[in-house]
Design a protein that fits this description.
10 helices, 401 residues, alpha+beta, Aminopeptidase, 6-stranded mixed beta sheet, Alpha-Beta Plaits, 4-stranded antiparallel beta sheet, 2 domains, single chain, binds zinc ion
Length: 401
Amino acid sequence: MIENIVLSMKDDMVNTLMEMIPIVAISPESGGKGELDRANFLEKKLREIGPDEIIRVDARDDRGIIRPNILARIYGENREKTIWIVAHMDTVPEGDRSLWEGDPFKPYIKDGKIYGRGSEDNGQSLVGALYAFKAVKISGIRPRNSIGLIFASDEEMGSRWGLEYVVRNYKFGDGDEFLVPDSGNEDGTEVEISEKGILWFSITVNGRQGHGSRPDLSLNAHRIANEIAVEIDKELHVKYDARDDIFIPPYSTFEPTKREANVQNINTIPGKERFYFDCRILPQYSIDSVIEDVKNICARVERNTGATIDFSIVQRADSAGTTDRNSEIVQKLLRILREKRGIEPKLVGIGGGTCAAILRRRGFPAVVWSTLDPVEHSPNEYCKIDNLVKDAVVFALLYVT
Ligand SMILES: [Zn+2]
């Protein structure tokens, strides 16, 4: 019955998304004016629904610009626990306008798709969640747990003034659980519960340049760099060899990638060499331990060769761990997808990068799921109306069952 309420609101969902897209919400860091106008538009929609609580957790960023965050709740029989759906209001800029068939901020419908910047990322889920929330209110069902919506700012630029700010300034219940519908696949079968840690580092070998015929007078940085790269490659793969089948690939990866240009000619022995590794590390391993191993290899080769070797971190993002597959939100979502969508969902881990990590890091179960085509951030971004409505049904069921 809640399904029918959601389905009956299809036109309202489409209209709300079409109304929202022209209210541009690009981050000031990307040259926009922020999310405030869009937030006020959404708060008005929320007030019309009339939930038990609407709270603003607005931040003021470095530039003094207000970065709004809206939280809304409908109380359940148990008010201690809330099932939250988190969506972000901000969008990336439109990019090269000549690649768009229409105006990115004047949405239009073609072949069952709404075109416009932010239509999919994250407009589809945001509007879907809003109407799932509204459907619960209209149904008069008092859900077992409280249900909540979070409309956050600043996701595209790292969430500092968005979800990160919210978790520091709003007290969630210990048992709260979260759905972040901001990533997914075309048929909605992927349920993401974990991200690998990311480590990018560079190694610079300083030897001594010389003539190709006189290695006796030189210290060949190229050869030493090769030696280190092979050592790292071998040692890390052996030591960090765990497998976890939710990931693709199901193991940690340590890939030598970029290598900077060295000498111009063949008959010069290079005196300096810099290369990089891109590592994606399973959540059970500590990145500190990987770093220590790499540093030890560098020290060993340094001692053996007399070269000076510098290690430097380019990027590091520790994994936030894996959401328990037996947590209520994961199990409930899997069941709804099986029963109502007739699909066989699979738990997945990814290479990194969603704001669910902010929640997992604080110990909250957080699952990332939605049904979408991979058009986020591209020209002619669209949202399939079918996905908008069908996902809204799943959100509503997640709220009330
Ligand atoms: Zn997004």
